[in-house]
């Protein structure tokens, strides 16, 4: 069954006329925060691993990560898993040197990807805790970050989500990082492919597909397909499927910022999986992916829920936030990719002196609130006009050039 929903792109024109003055007005316009920034991210590097050092150095420069956010550790590389004792010593050092304002981690290596029965990314977020591991095929401790509105997980939930800048060669990771940077504010006109395969045990997320298409109608074009693989598609923004090995990846074109994963048992065993490693998605052109590092059984809660990941991405969240918020029980799952990619982050630009253009993407209808103050600290008072934002892309144009004045834009 194929369900195709057309994307809605709505242009919203609002003109606010103020006294013209030759000042740098853009600095006086405060936009609502929608996701993590380079200042919020710390990068963890293994100084005993030349590839890790190379990845970390390039990422710091590409994303302008503050020097204080670069964390250096040392351990022997070349093994797939930390023991819990080894990891606890490592994490104690990481915790000591992490600046208090940091909200998330980027990990500059592909292995180790596991800590005993937990993924490395979850162990960094929660600390090692066997409650996040299955007992047989049972449930695990849930994540308080699941589907959260939080923009500050360390402050709000006492956890720092992590994502691995993973690859086996520097050229692969460099290309991944470059895609993430290119994705920012790009508002890609791509599609979501929700695929129901012949592997019914691994297609358990299909029960949510119709609801996802309904709730995100007008936000993303969504195709629900019954097939083992899609081929020759070059507009992929989301690809969620369930299969041991996903064929035909070499025929596909992923847009910068694309999220893609396959529900299977061992996708998160990045360098030694008997199934398809999640790294294959990154090598094919996706910007972030996910897989489990130990047998999870086919609990849907242990894998990304496509509708939730897509919703938070549309709000302007980064890849690490959207993916992490989509997994209810992430203890056994490893997140890989470029964490700061934000294709739908709002973008403000000055098109002429005092004339501005604001692009906003929205997964739902809501009001745009524009407020004015004579001080950056407020108080801000709403102006008379409250334009509506529609699902999908919105364009707001306004004039602003008031000396000593400030605008605050919320939605």
How much of the polypeptide forms β-strand, as a percent range? 25-35%
The helix tally amounts to: 9
What's the mean pLDDT score? 92
Overall geometry: globular
- C-alpha Rg, in Å? 22 Å
Main-sheet strand order equals: 1-22-17-16
| Overall structural domain count | 2
Distance between the termini: 36 Å
Largest sheet: 4 strands, mixed
Structural class: alpha/beta
Record field, number of beta strands: 23
Note poorly predicted spans.
1-23
The proportion of residues forming helix, as a percent range, comes to: 10-25%
Signal peptide: 1-27
InterPro entries: CHP03790
Protein name: TIGR03790 family protein
Keywords: Signal
Note down, in words, how this protein is organized.
- The chain is of the alpha/beta class and 411 residues long.
- It has 2 domains: 9-32 and 346-410, Sandwich (Immunoglobulin-like), CATH 2.60.40; 38-337, no CATH class.
- It has 9 helices and 23 strands.
- It has helices spanning 50-63, 84-97, 120-126, 153-157, 170-183, 209-215, 279-284, 306-314, 319-325, and strands spanning 9-11, 29-31, 41-46, 70-73, 81-82, 104-107, 114-115, 118-119, 162-164, 191-196, 222-226, 236-241, 254-262, 288-292, 333-337, 347-352, 355-362, 366-367, 369-373, 381-382, 388-389, 392-399, 406-410.
- It has a 4-stranded mixed beta sheet, with no helix packed on it. A 4-stranded mixed beta sheet has the order 2-23-19-20, with no helix packed on it. It has a 4-stranded parallel beta sheet with strand order 4-3-6-9, with helices on both faces.
- Helix 1 links the parallel strand 3 and strand 4.
């Amino acid at each position: 069954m194929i369900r195709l929903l057309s994307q809605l792109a709505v242009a919203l024109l609002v003109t606010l006329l103020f006294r013209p003055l030759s000042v740098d007005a853009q600095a006086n316009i405060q936009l609502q925060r929608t996701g993590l920034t380079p200042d919020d991210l710390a990068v963890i590097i293994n100084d005993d691993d030349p590839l890790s050092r190379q990845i970390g150095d390039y990422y710091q420069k590409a994303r302008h990560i503050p020097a204080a956010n670069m964390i250096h550790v040392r351990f022997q590389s070349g093994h797939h898993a930390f023991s819990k004792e080894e990891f606890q010593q490592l994490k104690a050092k990481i915790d000591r040197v992490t600046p208090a304002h940091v909200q998330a981690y980027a990990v500059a290596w592909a292995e180790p990807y596991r800590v005993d029965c937990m993924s490395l990314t979850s162990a960094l977020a929660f600390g090692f805790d066997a409650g996040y591991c299955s007992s047989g095929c049972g449930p695990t401790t849930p994540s308080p970050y699941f589907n959260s509105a939080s923009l500050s997980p360390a402050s709000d939930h006492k956890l720092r989500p992590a994502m691995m800048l993973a690859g086996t060669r520097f050229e692969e990771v460099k290309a991944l990082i470059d895609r993430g940077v290119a994705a920012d504010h790009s508002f890609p006109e791509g599609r979501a492919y929700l695929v129901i395969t012949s592997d019914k045990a691994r297609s358990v997320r299909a029960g949510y597909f119709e609801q996802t298409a309904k709730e995100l109608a007008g936000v993303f074009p969504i195709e629900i397909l019954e097939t083992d693989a899609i081929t020759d598609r070059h507009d992929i923004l989301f690809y969620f499927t369930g299969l041991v090995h996903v064929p035909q990846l070499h025929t596909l074109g992923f847009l910068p910022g694309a999220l893609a994963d396959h529900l299977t048992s061992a996708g998160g065993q990045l360098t030694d999986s008997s199934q398809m490693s999640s790294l294959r998605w990154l090598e094919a052109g996706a910007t972030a992916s996910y897989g489990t590092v130990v047998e999870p059984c086919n609990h849907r809660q242990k894998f990304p829920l496509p509708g939730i990941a897509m919703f938070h991405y549309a709000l302007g969240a980064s890849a690490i936030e959207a993916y992490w918020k989509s997994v209810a029980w992430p203890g056994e799952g490893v997140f890989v990719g470029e964490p700061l990619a934000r294709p739908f982050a709002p973008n403000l630009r000055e098109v002429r002196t005092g004339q501005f253009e604001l692009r906003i993407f929205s997964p739902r209808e809501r009001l745009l609130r524009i407020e004015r103050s004579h001080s950056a600290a407020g108080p801000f008072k709403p102006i008379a006009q409250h334009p509506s934002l529609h699902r999908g892309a919105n364009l707001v144009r306004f004039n602003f050039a008031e000396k000593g004045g400030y605008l605050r834009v919320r939605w």
